[in-house]
Amino acid sequence: WSRNALEWNLANDASFGPHTTGGCSTCKGALTINGSSIQRNVAYYIIAHAAKFVPAGSVRIGSNVSGDLQTVAFKTPAGKKVLIAENNGGTDIVFNIKFNGKWVIASLPAGGVGTYIW
User: Is the pLDDT of residue 17 over 90?
Assistant: First the structure.
């Protein structure tokens, strides 16, 4: 099975269109364009953050959801590992990052996102 998010529209108009029939009628793209005005939405920053640390050619090597903590890990073409973690909860969270028998304790504030590279 699959669990994913799809940014269907990179940009939408002031009414959040176009929409797919039966789909979300209030979902925003990365940008909202209203005449000559451009507004950056949350998806813009999500895409920009991931693109900064996960270059083209990277391969997803893992993902996990544990309570309010969502993670996804990649191996870059240069061989680096990149872990992006998001705390969807309303309280701070402490968690372990384990790889090849080594581990580190990390923490994220409520609603926080962290990127770890090794």
Answer: no
Using CA atoms, how far residue 109 sits from 19, 33, 39, 48, in Å, is 34, 32, 27, 21
Domain map of the chain by residue range? 7-50, 54-118
No. of H helices and E strands in the chain? 1, 9
Task: Write the DSSP symbol of residue 3.
Answer: -
Nearest to 80 by CA among 51, 101, 59, 49: 59
pTM of the complete model: 0.78
**Tally of CB atoms within 10 A around 67:** 10
CATH architecture of 54-118: Sandwich (2.60)
Our CA dihedral for 57, 62, 65, 70, rounded to 10 degrees, sits at: -40
Task: Cite the DSSP H helix spans in 1-118.
Answer: 42-53
